[in-house]
């Protein structure tokens, strides 16, 4: 069989296996550009001045650092949680200039000079914010992982409603909508609670809204 193969093909059996060995070695080796990638993996840091919870702070950051990582890894404000890291769960919600954002989807360098409020910043003189107290009162949490983002989102939600902003379920956009359960659910839809404490979360938000304590 070997002699018959040699007659039919100009490539010998020894040459074939030798070539195959070289090819396998080449495939197993790291790509030639790996070293170049490693050399460019770190960029020069930039000085970023942030206003977080009414404090003026200066940080030297890789310009690719997200606001979420700046808060957690550089400032130790771990109340803001990293969930999906893709802007889908809402666990990283913070309030920037009065509006809620997903801090995992924005870079820290983009918020120099902005007023950033995290869950820690809602506490005043050691007292819970009314929304924090309402979440406790209505048992609006179970595992608690999503709760900081839920509360920050809820605080901003009431400000948006007070300003007259409509939602997708608002029937008459020409008037200030009533804050019904459907309105609250729609406006909080960007914050996922995997424990499904939604009814209690809605009750907490209605409590604060109706009591005028936020």
UniProtKB/TrEMBL annotation:
2Fe-2S ferredoxin-type domain: residues covered: 46-122
Keyword Signal: yes
Stretch forming the signal peptide: 1-34
A GO molecular function held by the record: carboxylate reductase activity
Xref: SUPFAM superfamilies: 2Fe-2S ferredoxin-like (SSF54292), CO dehydrogenase ISP C-domain like (SSF47741)
EC identifiers of the protein: 1.2.99.6
Short name of one Pfam family: Fer2_2
The protein's enzyme class: oxidoreductase
PROSITE patterns given in the database record: 2FE2S_FER_1 (PS00197), 2FE2S_FER_2 (PS51085), TAT (PS51318)
InterPro entries: 2Fe-2S-bd, 2Fe-2S-bd_dom_sf, 2Fe-2S_ferredoxin-like_sf, 2Fe-2S_ferredoxin-type, 2Fe2S_fd_BS, Aldehyde_Oxdr_Iron-Sulfur, Beta-grasp_dom_sf, TAT_signal
Keywords: Iron, Metal-binding, Oxidoreductase, Signal
Protein name: Aldehyde oxidoreductase iron-sulfur-binding subunit PaoA
Protein's organism: Mesorhizobium escarrei
